[in-house]
């Protein structure tokens, strides 16, 4: 297993639209294990393949405190959304920046599991927020891009300053 490097905003590669997984192989399963290990080590509650510069439609999520409820979604699709929920989000690609985003309160998501078996999940609250946040990554969208251009430019300046001082 391996801990992978997470792309940092405003890296342009975070704006890549991921392509569907056509075949689930042992290589896909190794990638999923590495993504889970990277997420737990960060620590975080979700990770999209986009964030580790792999542009395939794969996300991993574990919102449990015990780190034993890993959800793997391959080629996820949201088929229903209900209500509205505002949550203070964070992102491993934008560390130290937190802010509110309005999303659906509950979602129905269909996807393939790591064996390629289709499943459907109805969920709400934090897991629903996290699914929507990670699916945005697969579309090349980062949560700060829901905010005003002014707020986004302040985030970009902060991130660039931090990246310069880390060099
Ligand atoms: O996509 C990511 O970068 C992961 C992100 C997921 C997320 C968090 C909050 C709302 C929506 C989506 C994170 O995991 S940020 C870190 C975080 O939330 C956390 C870290 C440690 C313990 C608990 C939460
Ligand atoms: Zn994120």
Textual characterization of the structure:
The protein has one domain: Peptide Deformylase (Alpha-Beta Complex). The two termini are 27 Å apart. The mean pLDDT is 97. The longest helix is centred in the last third of the chain and has 17 residues, at 149-165. Strand 6 and strand 7 form a beta hairpin. The strands form two sheets. Strands 1-2-3-6-7 form a five-stranded antiparallel β-sheet, with helices on both faces. The chain is α+β, with helices and mostly antiparallel strands and 167 residues long. The protein has helices at 26-41, 125-138, 149-165; strands spanning 46-48, 58-61, 71-82, 85-89, 99-103, 106-112, 118-124. The protein is built from three helices and seven strands, in the order H-E-E-E-E-E-E-E-H-H. The structure holds ligand K1U and zinc ion (ZN). Ligand K1U binds at residues 43-47, 87, 89-93, 129-130, 133-134.
Q: Biggest sheet, strands in spatial order?
A: 1-2-3-6-7
Rounded average pLDDT: 97
Please estimate the helix content.
25-40%
CATH class: Alpha Beta
Give the low-pLDDT segments. Answer: none
State Rg: 15 Å
Shape: globular
Beta content comes to: 25-35%
Q: Distance N terminus to C terminus?
A: 27 Å
CATH topology: Peptide Deformylase
Q: How does CATH name the architecture?
A: Alpha-Beta Complex
**How many helical elements?**
3
Quaternary structure of the protein? single chain
The structural domain count equals 1
User: Biggest sheet, open or closed, and with what strands and sense?
Assistant: 5 strands, antiparallel
CATH superfamily: Peptide deformylase
Which structural class best describes the helix and strand composition? alpha+beta
Order of helices and strands: HEEEEEEEHH
Number of strands: 7
Q: Give the distinct bound molecules.
A: ligand K1U, zinc ion
